[in-house]
Design goal:
heterodimer; A: mainly alpha; ABC transporter involved in vitamin B12 uptake, BtuC; 13 helices; B: alpha/beta; Rossmann fold; 6-stranded mixed beta sheet; 17 helices; about 30% helix; globular
């Protein structure tokens, strides 16, 4: 410790982790540039649009992960039930329907956060259980048939102001808001502290429970936003609407480099992760690879990033 | 004279050039229970670590069964026949007694493992007088004392020739200690040698055949226990004992600023602890591991959910078992475990200094960067941390500077009225120690209630305006006036009566 105490600038190290990040990015860049039709405005739009739905949920998941609750596995089911609420309440007007949807998402998810934060439940086990319960309830209520709206107030949400889907603007707004919350609010800063060292936060009298609930509630709002856009996009909601949202969102957070152990990360990084995944899918699609290959590459990418980030953090602590 | 099973010969070890153990020698005969005593920092744990392969000596040698051995790892020590039983139990609660005894055992043949294993397990348990423990019983159904015995049994079943017991009784109840002792005597009767490390001097004298005392890293003497008294042992441990005169500092006459603790009880750890701690004075709880001193602080800070009793600070009730509530009433607690229950090592020094006071730096939940910055600077200056290091991660600081930041986190705040510190200078160099003592004195002078728990006599005598000795969850004595280290030591180590 005493040796490390002397002030000296950190040496510029081209370690395995730096190379491990730079080389694949360069390769990706080269492949993308040489891909026919990749460098076009339309394609850029397509990339942003395809990252928007998952991206919004991923931003919320970032807060939960930074606050040390690891991953939550009930996002798909929550998005589905919110989408059904949203479509079933269309006749109340768009504003009311959106508000109800956000409130439903926030409540369902914040409840899980409360159990994790105040009663120290394991978030993974709890959210798996919650996912089943919510999914079951959804199937029960809908009778397994699609929910159709009575009016189409939601059409506004499918608009494309200045040529980009509305969801992209919402993604950018949510990212900005989340980043400001994390950096500049008491609650956000406490998320980092609780996430890094829960025992220390508890001994210091920090409101561990409250911070956890706030993070999960924000997550719930983000899931609900995704649910609303999904519903508007598909104009009906079945029990499988949420699809692979849960794992896609987690992948985006991890590719962005937020630590799964909590305490480190940012919303901007997650935005980067979501876009990067879209770029890769896009390149593979343009080059004519199948969906299977796309998913395979996504998996390898997440693995690579998680390993490099892990190497960095463990080395940083030594 | 029994043959010497283990000989420690002029063992020497330094850390960063500072000698921790110098020329320590003693020998343990077959069947002997050998006590190892010394005040904090005397070098006991360093010797234990060298005997168990966790540290390599710089000089000297360890002879086991007539052959010099080099213990480069825990497993090397195990192969040489050295087993360690300490506070941190390594038995697996979910497994049965038998399964635990087989864990990591290289002597059991794979074939016909179970039948021979049961018989051997049974025999070892019987030898220790543990007839009522069933090999197929899950360890989770056993008491802590029984679990320690299972560790000893495991060591014996793996042919240990030397079993080192490091503070085995610190957290045990009377009854448990009594039969742990009985079992230890039976183990010794089988010819196995034991080294018993303990702060409980009467127990050492009762159990051991001979006692080696360490002081400042050197062995002072090895004496047959029958020729020693507790007082003589304390003289050997302390040499010229430090003492102090009655403090002249006046307490805040205003009782409204006091921390009042009445009947504070934590099951199995602390019984009926009461104290009126006035602002402006430093109250020092003197107690070894298991004495309840640390538990008293943790209970007041809300970290013992099972605590009962009443705590009031500035005439407002402090809720028990609720750390957030305690902090809101003005209690700041500093754990003795700076790394895992204290600082946020990944975060910057500045972030650590402001970590617990974020709401006071925010307006409507939005942090004001200029206030954060100014506060971090003020606190850094107050606790003597160089300003240019505020941006570095906490982990880059030395132990002393980390501890300064830990204390500093609670200073310069108008919502903290009581400072609770568990071992305020553990792992801190001499210079850092003086600086932290100075900080605590200033905190008291500025009107805070300061309550600390420590095992170090020098610290207790230097800081404590009121020194309260504790043992087995009870207060032994309260000293407002003259006192010397010998008395404190006697109070802290008399064991149970």
């Amino acid at each position: 410790m005493t040796a490390a105490d002397s002030t000296r600038p950190a040496p510029l190290r081209l370690g395995v982790s730096t190379v491990g990040l730079a080389v694949p990015l360069l390769v990706l860049g080269a492949v993308a540039m040489t891909t026919h039709r990749f460098l076009s405005l339309d394609n850029a739009r397509a990339i942003l649009a395809s990252s928007a739905f998952v991206g919004i949920t991923a931003i919320g998941a970032t807060l939960v992960m930074i606050a040390g609750s690891g991953v939550s596995l009930a996002a798909s089911q929550t998005a589905t039930v919110v989408a059904m609420f949203f479509l079933a309440t269309q006749q109340l007007g768009l504003a009311a329907a959106v508000l109800i949807a956000l409130a439903a998402g926030a409540t369902l998810t914040a409840l899980q956060g409360a159990i994790v934060g105040y009663w120290h439940a394991n978030p993974i086990v709890l959210s798996i259980a919650a996912g089943f319960a919510i999914g079951g309830a959804t199937t029960w209520f809908s009778g397994g048939t699609p929910v159709y709206p009575r009016t189409r107030a939601f059409d506004v949400l499918n608009g494309t102001p200045f040529g980009l889907p509305l969801a992209v603007y919402v993604l950018l707004a949510v990212t900005l808001l989340a980043e400001l919350t994390l950096r500049r609010t008491t609650a956000g800063r406490q998320m980092y502290l609780v996430g890094e060292n829960r025992a220390a936060a508890r001994a210091a009298g920090l409101p561990v429970g409250r911070v956890t609930v706030i993070a999960w509630a924000c997550f719930g709002v983000c899931i609900a936003l995704t649910g609303v856009f999904l519903a508007s996009f598909t104009t009906s909601a079945t029990v499988t609407l949420g699809g692979t949202l849960t794992l896609d969102a987690i992948a985006a957070v991890l590719v962005g480099g937020t630590a799964i152990t909590g305490g480190r990360g940012s919303a901007l990084r997650t935005l980067g992760g979501a876009v990067l995944i879209s770029v890769i899918s896009d390149v593979l699609l343009l080059r004519g690879f199948s969906t299977g290959i796309q998913i395979l590459v996504k998996g390898i990418l997440v693995l690579a990033v998680v390993v490099t980030v892990h190497l960095r953090t463990t080395r940083g602590r030594q | 004279m029994q043959p010497r099973v283990v000989e420690v010969d002029r063992l020497t070890r330094a850390f960063n050039g500072v000698p921790a153990v110098r020329d320590v020698s003693f020998a343990v005969a077959a069947g002997e229970i050998h006590g190892l005593c010394g005040h904090n920092g005397a070098g006991k744990s360093t010797v234990v670590k060298m005997l168990t392969g966790q540290l390599e000596p710089d000089g000297g040698r360890i002879v086991i069964g007539g052959e010099p051995v080099e213990l480069r790892s825990r497993s090397a020590a195990q192969r040489a026949g050295v087993a360690l039983v300490d506070q941190e139990l390594s038995v697996v609660p979910a497994l049965t007694v038998l399964e635990n005894m087989l864990l990591g055992d290289i002597h059991v043949p794979m074939a016909n493992r179970r039948r021979s294993a049961v018989a051997r397990c049974r025999r070892v348990l019987d030898d220790m007088g543990l007839e009522r423990i069933d090999p197929d019983q899950p360890v989770s159904t056993l008491s802590i004392g029984e679990r320690q015995l299972i560790e000893i049994a495991k060591a014996l079943s793996q042919h240990a020739r030397l079993v080192i017991l490091d503070e085995p009784t610190a957290t045990l109840t009377d009854v448990e200690s009594a039969y742990v002792f009985a079992a230890i005597r039976r183990v010794a009767a089988t010819g196995c040698s034991l080294v018993f490390v303990s702060h409980r001097l009467p127990e050492v004298l009762e159990l051991c055949d001979a006692v080696t005392v360490l002081r400042n890293g050197r062995s002072v003497a090895t004496t047959p226990a029958a020729r020693l008294t507790v007082d003589e042992l304390i003289v050997q441990m302390l040499g010229e004992p430090p003492h102090r005169l009655a403090p002249t500092r006046m307490a805040d006459p205003d009782l409204a600023h006091a921390l009042r603790i009445a009947g504070l009880t934590v099951p199995a750890r602390l019984k009926d602890f009461s104290l009126n701690a006035r602002a402006g004075r430093i109250y020092a709880l003197a107690g070894q591991l298991g004495s309840g001193a640390s538990d008293a602080l943790r209970a007041v800070a809300g970290l013992h959910p099972a605590a009962t009793g009443t705590v009031e600070l500035r005439d407002r009730a402090v809720p028990l078992g609720d750390p957030v509530g305690a902090a809101r009433r003005g209690i700041a607690f500093l754990s003795n475990d700076r790394k895992s229950e204290g600082l946020f090592l990944d975060k910057s020094v500045a972030a650590n200094l402001t970590a617990t006071r974020l709401p006071s730096l925010a307006r409507a939940g939005i942090l004001q960067p200029h206030r954060e910055h100014a506060t971090a600077q003020t606190v850094a200056e107050r606790c003597g941390l160089p300003e240019h290091r505020l941006g570095e991660p906490m982990a880059a600081l030395s132990g002393g500077n980390q501890q300064k930041a830990f204390v500093g986190r609670c200073l310069e705040r108008n919502d903290v009225f009581a400072l609770l510190l568990d071992e305020p200078t553990r792992g801190v160099d001499i210079g850092g120690r003086a600086a932290i003592h100075q900080l605590l004195r200033e905190a008291a002078d500025n009107g805070l209630v300061v309550l600390l728990a420590s095992t170090e006599l020098e610290e207790l005598l230097e800081l404590g305006d009121v020194i309260i000795t504790m043992r087995d969850g009870h207060i032994v004595h309260r000293y407002d006036g003259d006192v010397d280290g010998g008395r404190l030591m006697r109070d802290m180590t008399q064991g149970r009566k």
